[in-house]
Amino acid sequence: MKKFIKKLFYLLKIIRIKIFEWISKINPRLLNLTYILISFFSFFGGILTIFFIGKVYTPAVANDLVPYINFICWSVSILYIIQIILLILPGGRRFSWLNLFIKILFISTLNYFVYYIPDFISGYLHELNYIYYYKLFLIFLVFLRTISHWIENIYRITKQHPAKIFILSFIFIIIVGSILLLLPAATYENVKYEDSLFITVSAVCVTGLTPLNIATTFTWLGKLIILILIQIGGLGIMTITSFLALSFTRSDLSLKEQQGLGFSIGTSTYREVLKNLYLVVLITLFFESIGAVLIYFSVPANHFNTVSQHVFFAIFHSVSAFCNAGFSSIDAGMMNSAFVNNYLGIFTISGLIIFGGLGFFVIKSFVDNLFLYIKNFFRKLFKKDKIIKPKIVNINNIIVIRTTIILLILGILGILVLEANRGLNGFNWFNKIVHAFFCSVTPRTAGFNTIDFAIFSPATIMFIIILMWIGASPGSTGGGIKTTSIALAFLNARSLGRSQEKIRYKNKTISNASIQKAFVIIVFSLLTIFIGIIFICAFDPHLGFMNIMFEVFSAFGTVGLSLGITPDLSLSSKIVIIIEMFIGRMQFVILFLAIIKKTKQRLIKYPEVDLNL
Length: 613
Known about the structure:
Blueprint: H1 2-53, H2 59-62, H3 66-88, H4 97-108, H5 119-122, H6 130-157, H7 162-180, H8 193-204, H9 214-217, H10 220-235, H11 237-248, H12 255-265, H13 270-298, H14 307-322, H15 343-358, H16 360-381, H17 395-419, H18 429-441, H19 458-470, H20 483-497, E1 504-505, E2 508-509, H21 512-539, H22 545-556, H23 571-586, H24 588-595
Antiparallel strand pairs: 1-2
């Protein structure tokens, strides 16, 4: 009997092992099948969401599609339940608790009824019960995660250069965004595709130039689409999708993703990419949240019909300012009465522009020093030893901060000297300084303006053009040739004057690679800009040379300032401006890496030759 029991237990053990082996073998296949089915259902759910929210239907069709909405919701819920079971069983993939929480939250809230819908949205929801819009919203979130998953797979399996993937990701977003802006519910009037494409490129490239009045042309949905495009353009689609991948799907990034992210967030070390990905997103959300709160309280509620409009206004301008986009959701932008003598609003937007243009890693160093100061303050209260960290001189941060301060001071002084008795003549000295400060900040790729730049003298316009050309700093949301490039140009001139073979700064030697990149950026930026000016002068000579030059510099620097000729551009000129905005956002180094093939290194050293200069 004992032998029989032992044999039985042994047999059961073998069966259990075989079952575990079979489950471990079949589990990944079933899991992949569920991902494919979820992608399939969420894709159609996303299309249905766009179909309803964009009002691409007749009222009679809406109720006929209700069974399909329910079917997609329940199908995705059942597949999520299967996924949760498969993840727990042997052979399941590694998963994050956040991913599991989201799936459980989706299933549990499937039939939750939405009691409150913001008033600026509820007016568009007539054909269906609110619960179905909520279901569509949930499915659309799944759809976004699906797209994230697709793009993530493209990063991993593609053999293309990461710079090319970076560029293609922006082109993909531009195409999708330009189509979404044509939805009937996104506009109050018919919009040509050329204008939709122009505004989409301007938003994704965080420029701010627009041939249409955003406030009167687009509905809340159109403005929301523009806001999302600005945020994607500021952070970069690769940053967002990789952030979603790490948060909701995996615990690591592929080497190809890390390389691509290096271009997106302005770092070359893979360890820095993984370390700073979350920080980039958190810094952005932190500054945009603080900015939205300050803008909300700076503008009186009587400028808006509802609280929802007030909140949306604050969020829109905060995101637009920090991403250095320059778009405004109200008529006349910052020249509107909502911002006239509104010093809190003006300084808030100025601060967002400056911090957004400094670069994420410069801000990170500030944050690290702030936290260290706070820690030491509390340690001193509790009579503990002070934390001392070695002070490492970061040449990049020093150059960025000093160049930024110098440009701001020169900008203020230059505008005051040139316009104190002209364009700023009607203001008292305090307001003159405030407007000169803002006019110095905004050419740093922001695009907001409290004064019509068309009233400025040609000398001031040329001065602003130089500021627009220089732009923001590396690793930021802004454009231009960057503060480091112009700083290196001056340091190089100084070293040549002193007959030095290398550029030395703060007991450090600047690498030849950095000097070469700065030279390429400066030379080819001017070449691209002047080619654009030549083409637009040929297409629209009646617009005036100064106006055209200002427009092209603004487009390349992703600034968004204009002397008022953007709506009058012909189709050919709009295409030129679109190309200028795109090249300005991508930067030449990335474009060269994407287009030019890397040559094989040869162990041959050719003789050096000095040219006559």
